[in-house]
Amino acid sequence: MDSETLLARITDYASRPNPYPLYEELRQAGPVVWQTDGNCLIGTYHQIAALLHDPRMSAAPRPHGEAPRQPFLRVDDPEHHRLRTLAMRPFGPPHSPRRIEGMRAEIDRITKELMASFESGQKIDIVDDFAYPLPVTVICRLLGVPREDEPLFRAWSDALVAAADVRPDQDTTETDKAGEQARMEIGGYLLNLAEQRRGHPSDDLLSAFVNEPDPALRLTQEELAVTAVLLLIAGHETTVNLITNGVLTLLRQPEQLDHLRREPDLLPRAVEELLRYEPPVHMRERIPHADIEVAGTAIPQGTSVILVLASGNRDPKRFHEPDRFDPTRPDNQHFGFSSGIHFCYGAPLARLEAQTALGALLPHLGTASLVQDPPPYRQNAMLRGPRHLPVHL
Amino acid sequence: MPGDLKDGRIVIVGASLAGLRAAEALREEGFTGSLTVVGDEPHAPYDRPPLSKQVLLGQATADTTELPMRMDPDAEWRLGVRATGVDLLAKRVLLEDGEPLPYDRLLITTGTRARPWPDPDEAALEGVFTLRTCEDGAGLAERLAAKPERVLVIGAGFTGSEIASACRELGVEVTVAERGPAPLVGALGGTLSKLAAVMQRNHGVDLRTGVTVTALHGNGSFTGAELSDGSRVDADVCVVALGAIRNVEWLADSGLAAGPRGIACDAGCRAFNMYGIVTDDVFVAGDVSRFPHPLFGYQMLSLEHWGNAVEQAEVAAHNMVNPGPLQRPHLSIPTFWSTQFGLNIKSVGVPTFSDHIVIAQGSLEARRLAMVYGYQGRVTAAVTVDMAKALDYYRHLIETAAPFPPPPGAQDRPIAADITIPSEVPDPSVLSHGPTVALTGHLPDRRLTVV
């Protein structure tokens, strides 16, 4: 088939359950694969790694009209560095080195509460009953957002994520508009919450941001809004896929499930392998600030370059038997959290959540079975994951 | 016969990072014979970088930096035993006590030791330290924790600068005496050394440059020192940080090409003998080696880098148990890091192999930058300050001999990115202590007169 339509075929909803044969086609046709609309796709590990570290590659969207302020995920250095460093102060090292580890007991408790009603013989939806509520409860607790407002921001989040998806064959005017509307509303909502904590700090990130005493280390209102939106959305749109993909993968591979049940110490490595084998984030877009060259192919300044991280994770030039799920895999430097300056801010939290969640589920999975395989997937091709995962315990 | 290489007797002399990693790698490569590791320190292999950082700050104690073993290399450990020579003909390592150790293949990983203060009586004063071993680290950490009035650090290379940084972080007054024009100049060249000087002074270090220490005073205990400019520094602790000496004296009569810059070996880690003929059964890795690198004009490099010890040990181990056509060259790009005065400094390539530099990203004012080094129009090194994530990109430029200055288009690119300036790497022969990378070979236009 024609490699110029690969992106359209990858994003076609019919490809959602198994995009990996298309990724193989992408690597065969690559490293640089031009699309009919003038953009290009890259799916080979070493080229993706080089571009993620290339300071000439911009993560900022091409400006059209009055561009709204972007979260640090879509901002270049030095502004990106400033915003990310400020956002990191209450979240991780060097200023808050024990923040995530300190949440371990609470994540354990939330996990146990969610599992309290699970009984053998029962049919549950791993997504709605477990993999979604767990990270949402955690990120709400961390940010300082009331858990009962979840239906509110779930709708906003859906609109925002739809607007951020890659849809080459579709008119995106409507989804873009809905996304913009959602961004405004959720930003206002979070700013309002932050304002309530001004002068009344509690143990959460919104409090820390709004009560920062040093003016040089304070986010502006606008920066605070976009940063808080980013953390809330990223904190609950990705880990849900990681946990769900983990259950799906283990139920599809009973021998690996048995292995893990015998050796639960392998769990942290199994989560890394999962991040390689079935990552929550499949693609990221970059735009070169100068004419660049990738494996002998010139890519002009301003081209939209789509890095297919999930394809890099399956590149046989980097990983031995890449299509095998192997929790004991050595040297597993995957792109599950991307790489370079935009390496996932929440990675330590995601790891802890996935390890806790899958560790707690392991004893129940021995007798569990998939009700539907493949399960129904969400529309999004970039943030790929099942919408439901019905399982018989 | 290739099969035999996986069996037999291998002796490793040197039980630190390179020795341990080689022992592990030998087993991973399928070596099933007998393995003996000889080390003159009484400890199991331990990590040294924390000794000038976390240990001095009291965040870790010196006896907790033992290196984790990735696997049990099933070796006989002869620790606390000094090797005194090697008989290449009889294939035996001589030990200061006990029977000679016969070997089929030998790996030398004896590393370096701290250069001591030249006057033994002054060096013996209580309160005078060097920093290389865990005993050194424990002793110095204990003195710093007791809040001395003032510490004198002699030499502002990486070790000296990190010690000064730890002193200031602990609130201890510190004077640094450096013979060169600025700290780190031997490793990083003129521009970054000026930044290092500013950082030291901003953190309250009493930095004296262009001076040498001429005498240490004390009556049993160290009380102060005299400098070549006629001034005197009163202090109760003195740290001599004048670089490292390679542990090669024990090989003086061996016939191997061992000298002050280390033991010469080929790209496959095989040692040369004194006639420049490569040996088949003696290998070298880590700080004690000097090896040719094609990206740096086939200069013989001597590196004092953690990463090089690991990578070279793995190549040496591979080559010790594989026949010639399957052997690998040691071609990895040198890298090192340092943390001091709140800055994270990382380097890739060989900064001393340069004639010009350019600030490709960030700025000196922001204390956050990527500096690229070039030699005759190609990129040979990069040093980042609080910008480590950019390093992989510059490593790729070095590996591909990309043109210098690097191409435009980088984020955070200053106007100054178009302006190249001389790298001002000093002639190694005028330094009182070596840089952590020494170019020890011959370049027609950069002849080293004194080594």
From TrEMBL, chain A:
Keywords: Heme, Iron, Metal-binding, Monooxygenase, Oxidoreductase
Classification via Pfam families: p450
Molecular functions (GO terms): heme binding; iron ion binding; monooxygenase activity; oxidoreductase activity, acting on paired donors, with incorporation or reduction of molecular oxygen
Family annotation (InterPro entries): Cyt_P450, Cyt_P450_B, Cyt_P450_sf
Homology family: Belongs to the cytochrome P450 family.
PANTHER family: CYTOCHROME P450 YJIB-RELATED, P450, PUTATIVE (EUROFUNG)-RELATED
Protein name: Cytochrome P450
Automatic annotation (TrEMBL), chain B:
Residue span(s) of domain Reductase C-terminal: 336-406
Keywords for this protein: FAD, Flavoprotein, Oxidoreductase
One Gene Ontology CC term in the entry: cytoplasm
Cofactors demanded by this protein: FAD
GO molecular function, one term: oxidoreductase activity, acting on NAD(P)H
SUPFAM superfamilies the UniProt entry points to: FAD/NAD(P)-binding domain, FAD/NAD-linked reductases, dimerisation (C-terminal) domain
Stated name of the protein: Pyridine nucleotide-disulfide oxidoreductase
